[in-house]
Amino acid sequence: DTGVSQDPRHKITKRGQNVTFRCDPISEHNRLYWYRQTLGQGPEFLTYFQNEAQLEKSRLLSDRFSAERPKGSFSTLEIQRTEQGDSAMYLCASSLVQATEAFFGQGTRLTVV
Amino acid sequence: GIQVEQSPPDLILQEGANSTLRCNFSDSVNNLQWFHQNPWGQLINLFYIPSGTKQNGRLSATTVATERYSLLYISSSQTTDSGVYFCAAANQAGTALIFGKGTTLSVSS
Fold first, then answer.
1. Where would you tag: which of A59, A82, B13, B103 has the fewest CB atoms within 10 A of its CB?
2. Residues of B with Cβ-Cβ distance to A99 under 8 angstroms
3. Spacing of C-alpha B12 from chain mean position
4. Based on the number of CB atoms within 10 Å of its own CB, is B82 exposed (0-12), middle (13-18) or buried (19 or more)?
């Protein structure tokens, strides 16, 4: 197993465009988390899945954001009508179950111009 | 939700010095992790330590769950230890890890 994988690593988009990121968790990990990190800050929780069910969404996850995890495997995070304030590193993590060690991917760095 | 505070925010050391990073949390935890963020942004797992003490080479960590704090010790620091260290915790009823703001460590030779 190669760990949590995220794609793309970098994305530059124009304001108003839609973008989609993918996360492949460690196999057999039931939990998958999305975080956002802006410069100089710690990662902020966005949402998490237990298998295919999205169980919690942060207030940071505006209506322009949507996440899916079909079949409980990989997950996608889509941002519609991107804004400059969406520029950040988007991190994905997975864990076997809650209260077990979480492992993070390398992140997708989004720049909205 | 749980609050996580880290101190100090910044730490400057000479190579070879020892340091202690602190993490306070506001609630009982069932998960606590320390990470080192590399220059490319990836979070590297250092310790999974909801309670007790662990050691890995020059690094060790202690979590005193009853007093709601955790400490990360770095001994004989090296320039490669530079970077941002994060503590993250999840509470008993919680779900995802909540991160502190991090401690930025700079080690000079």
1. A59
2. 30-31, 50, 90
3. 16
4. middle
Distance of CA B86 to the CA centre of its chain: 5
| Residue B95 contacts residue B88 (beta carbons within 8 Å) | no
CB within 8 Å: A42 and B43:
no
CA–CA gap between residue B12 and residue B15 (Å, rounded): 10
CA–CA dist A82, A64 (Å, integer): 8
Tokens at A40, concatenated? 């100089």
**Domains of chain B, earliest start first:** 4-108 (2.60.40.10)
Residues in chain A closer than 8 A to B102 (CB atoms): 42
* B residues 17-76 lying closer than 8 A (beta carbon) to A: 30-31, 33, 35, 40-43, 45, 48, 50
Express each pLDDT in A16-62 by its tens digit.
Answer: 999 999 999 999 899 999 999 999 999 999 999 999 999 999 998 99
Q: How confident is the model at residue A71 (pLDDT cuts 50, 70, 90)?
A: confident
H or E element in which residue A109 lies: strand A108-112
What residues have CB less than 8 Å from A33, skipping those under 6 apart? A45, A46, A47, A48, A49, A92, A93, A94, A95, A102, B96, B97
